[in-house]
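Let's practice the habit of predicting before peeking. Look at the sequence and jot down your guess about where helices and strands might fall. Then scroll down.
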Amino acid sequence: MARDIYEEGHRIPIQKLVKAGRLNEDLLEIILANVRAKEMVRGDILAHVACLKRAEIRVLELLDDYTMAHLSEAGDGIIERTSLMIDQRLDQIADFKVASSMQVEGTDGDLTLAVAIEKQGRSVSVDFSGTDGPVPRGINVPLCYTRAFTLFSFKCLLLPDVPNNQAFGDFISVSAPTDCLLNAQPPWPTGGRHIIGHFVTPLIFGALQEQFPEGVQADCGMLTQINCQGIAQSGRRVATVVFASGGYGALHEHDGQAAVPGPGNMIGCSAEIIEQENEIMILSKELLPDSGGAGRHQGGNGQRVLLMNDSGSELSISFLAARDRFPPRGFLHGQDGQARRYLLDGKVISPKGRYSWPPGSVIETHEAGGGGLGDPSDRQPRQVAADLAIGCITEAFARRHYPRQFAQLEKDG
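Done guessing? Here is the structure:
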């Protein structure tokens, strides 16, 4: 709900946390003075320091094994070979120019994202002109984030098995109007940038589904982020983030997996740790049949999650999610997945709202299903039978979306 960047907390300019082997205790003290779970954050930061120190030792050992003074030569070679592979791949693709747009849920109304993509020879330009302007809420996206998801999208389409390096950034130019939703400048708030930024990949895939029918992925159900804060009756300070994933979008020759995040890769702690550390009880997690979109390849199902405030005190919760009004889209004649829905004690609430969570109250999330890919009439009867057998879809869903296949199954007994 921040209206500008100053309401999102402290911004720390780039500086060294450790210098000449000595920890900058003053900087660490500033950070810890502005977080709720001080010991947890301190442990996280020092764990990063330890990981970097260990990496330093192993890299020096590697250089010693190969009698190398530094990594530059190896790095240059990797980038050069990757660039060659990219050039070869682009030579196989005819030049094209496409444009697309999509609607997404904002905080105070719907927003438009737009993209124009042009491939000429061995270069690709991606322009986000036509995208709506920034909003006084923390869902704006800085251009670096937009660029990262653009590069990720093209890597998936062109050379998904090649390790990521600078070569992927050298052949793509990314532009967006200054101060649009995907190129926010200070002081626009950006703390919840993933809510909009994660749509860059489906926006690009939607634009390129005809050019790359075997490479694009139907829309994913994306993820839910629930921020929870407060002080439990026991005196324990509660400060946690609970993640829950919607269904994965279908791909060429692959059904989408159930309850798998995309395009982000966040992962949550186990239910036992969440319950022990934060006095929140996870009552149940179950897959939602019929929530994935029908298609030659079925979208992954979402899930239903029930959380209860077991702290004995009122907690504060805020939600960061989308896909509640615009469900995950199916591509290439595939059908849309089921939209997301939140309830608090049975009452529908906003996936971008902030609420008081009384003790004993239950949050219920219905995570969105992934979109289907390809015409549902092309799905094999044996696949429909397998989905029915494991409860992925119901008989009513099969009759409605796969009538020919279901009739064949009934005929075969």
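How did you do? The longest strand covers residues 110-120.
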